[in-house]
Write a structure and sequence with these properties.
Largest sheet: 3 strands, antiparallel
Bound molecules: zinc ion
CATH topology of the largest domain: Arc Repressor Mutant, subunit A
Strand order of the largest sheet: 1-3-2
Number of helices: 5
Radius of gyration: 18 Å
CATH superfamily of the largest domain: Winged helix-like DNA-binding domain superfamily/Winged helix DNA-binding domain
Length: 161
């Protein structure tokens, strides 16, 4: 019954010593299918795929996957946490102030150089989070509105009992 993709994700989990469960697979698949997805949205996608799952179970699965390095969590100011499965390259993000759209952007000068701080003050740095804020192309064509730092989030709750 398992598709090839699911099998790959299962072996990905096993390789990290993570217990393979239908919920974790579904969460991993949801994040892979929709970069920068929110936990609420993951819950919607998983429910559509495998049926009922509590938001807490979604958070638990996301936390395990983040801790094991299979997915990355970003938390733009004024936005709920977002998750993506593009990990390990320390890429950056462009974030629209108006609609909240998030897109990936590679490091400005090559290979994750931003991990080398000009002065690390003795810290062992393992991640640098860089967000470029502005207005996305779609929002630039709209009449200028006062930029809102906390754009309304699309809520798709209540679709299912
Ligand atoms: Zn926008
Ligand atoms: Zn990203």
């Amino acid at each position: 019954m398992l598709s090839v993709v699911v099998t790959d994700q299962a072996s990905l989990l096993r390789a990290r010593g993570i217990q393979v469960t239908a919920q974790r697979l579904a969460v991993l698949r949801a994040v892979g299918g929709e970069p920068h997805i929110t936990a609420d949205r993951v819950a919607d996608v998983v429910r559509a795929g495998i049926g009922a799952i509590s938001l807490q179970s979604v958070y638990d699965a996301l936390n395990v996957l983040v801790t094991e390095g299979l997915i990355r969590r970003i938390q733009p100011a004024g936005s709920p946490a977002r998750f993506e499965d593009r990990v390990g390259d320390n890429h950056h993000h462009l974030i629209c102030r108006i609609c909240g759209r998030v897109v990936d952007v590679d490091c400005a000068v090559g290979d994750a150089p931003c991990l080398a701080a000009s002065d690390d003050k003795g810290y062992q740095i393992d991640e640098a989070e860089i967000a470029y804020w502005g207005r996305c192309p779609a929002c630039q064509s709209q009449p200028p509105a006062s930029p809102r730092p906390t754009p309304p989030q699309t809520r798709r709750r209540g679709k299912r009992p």
